[in-house]
Every structure is written in C-alpha cells, then in structure tokens.
Write a structure and sequence with these properties.
It is globular, with a radius of gyration of 17 Å. The chain has one domain (5-248): TIM Barrel (Alpha-Beta Barrel), CATH 3.20.20. It has an eight-stranded parallel β-barrel, surrounded by six helices. Helix content is 45%, strand content 14%. The chain is built from twelve helices and eight strands.
C-alpha cells in the first residue's frame, strides 16, 4: 500500500521567528501520526525548522533548487546545499513555471540533479483553466509527466512523488472535485507513468493532489483510491487546518 504523504508548501511566507512559532504548535500534534508529513518553509527558515524537527518523524523540504552543483547563479541553491538540510524538494510548481520561466526541460534537469544527491523530489504537473476548458487536460498533463521524467530509470522514478495541481485550483478556493482529481490520476498520470516505466512501477509511485485543499474537503479527497495525499498551500500556514488535513489522511 502506498503510504499517504502530506506536504505543506509555505511558499514565500513566514519569517524565521514566525516559522518557529508555527512548527512549535504543529509538531506535538503531528509527530506520532502515521502519515508521512513534510514541511516546506522558505529557504531562510530551513535551518531553524530543521533543528526543531530533529528526533521527530516529520520531514523537511525545500521549495526549489538549481540543477548545477555550483557556479555563478546568483540567488540559487544547489542540490548539495538543499541536501545538507532537507530530504525533499518541490520541483516544477506552476508558480515556478508561470513566474520564473521553468519548462518541462528544466524540471527534468532538476529532477535528475535532486535524485543524484539523494533527495526525494515532488514533481508538480497541472493544466491551466484555459487548457482545462479546452479539453486539453490529458494532453498537457501527460506531456509534463513524460518530459519531466524523461531518461529516468525505474529505480530512480520509484524514489520520487508526483503532485497533480490543476493551476485553476491553486489558491482560488475552487478545488477540483474528488472524483475529477482521481480521474486525472487514474486515467492520465498513471498511464503516462506506465508507458515510461511499466505498469507495476506506475502503481507504486505516490501521486498527490494539490489545489485549494482544506480541512473540509480532505476526507473526500483522500477517500479516492489513486490520491495518495496532498500538496497543501494556504492551509499549511494555519496550524489547526493543516493538522486536520494530515489526520484525515490516516488509513
């Protein structure tokens, strides 16, 4: 059985002191829950949060990395820098694609670089509202999966996680329906994975849903057979809501 994973993407929120406060509230409630839980604070707070998570089962991740090991890339962090503090990294988030020009090709390079240093990538895919309305969800998401994971081995792909985040649902309060989200996972993403890596591997890879996940819709989402957890945005900044979402994922 695929173990549920709940990832809290804090995005560009929380100072170091604010991060400490949030973590101090959530750790006592979450460290014994049998769900893989990961916090993704901003880079400035990683060291402080890492110290607070020591000795707990809660994981720590970065929101991005560069594919090069070092060099003249002002403002970027290398895979090795991330791996010193984290086990996980989010790659290809729609906001990175929209605002910072990331492509399927750059995501692929980042995935390979992350895996090379032992990180667990959470690779994001998802369509825009226009693409959804035009009936292009399957073609867009399938392309992103195949291009983002190109040239990986079965052994490598089994070490990563996919997150389906329909762009029209992120931060809008308009989540995909549980059955609709599950349909994309079951009918688009897993078949794309099967085409690349074989059917057995496609059934072992965890796929999360992201996009306006709340304490109110979490139970229905996690009841779907192909949804293995969530990549949570805004609700991950609210301790009570995030705790409820994590506990809703217990199977």
């Amino acid at each position: 059985m695929r173990k549920p994973l709940i990832a809290g993407n804090w995005k560009m929120n929380k100072t170091v002191e604010q991060a400490r406060l949030l973590v101090s509230v959530m750790v006592p409630e979450l460290h014994t829950v049998d769900v893989e839980t990961v916090f993704f604070p901003p880079f400035t707070a990683l060291m402080a949060v890492s110290a607070m998570l020591a000795g707990t089962k809660i994981g720590l991740g970065a929101q991005n990395l560069h594919w090069e090991a070092s060099g003249a890339y002002t403002g970027e962090e290398s895979p090795q820098m991330v791996a010193e503090l984290c086990k996980y990294v989010i790659l290809g988030h729609s906001e990175r694609r929209q605002y910072f020009g990331e492509t399927d090709g750059s995501v692929n390079k980042k995935v390979k670089a992350a895996l090379a240093v032992g990180l667990t990538p959470i690779v994001c895919v998802g369509e825009t509202f226009a693409e959804n309305e035009a009936g292009q969800t399957a073609s867009v998401v399938s392309r992103q999966v195949k291009a983002g994971l190109a040239d990986l081995s079965v052994e490598q792909v089994l070490k990563l996680v996919i997150a389906y985040e329909p762009i029209w649902a992120i931060g809008t309060g308009r989540a995909a329906t549980a059955s609709g989200a599950n349909g994309v996972l079951a009918d688009v993403i897993r078949p794309a994975l099967a085409a690349l890596f074989g059917a057995p591997a496609s059934q072992q890879i965890r796929i999360l849903y992201g996009g306006s996940v709340t304490a109110a819709n979490a139970v229905e989402l996690f009841a779907q057979p192909d949804i293995d957890g969530a990549l949570v945005g805004g609700a991950s900044l609210k301790s009570a809501d995030f705790i409820k979402i994590v506990k809703a994922a217990v199977r």
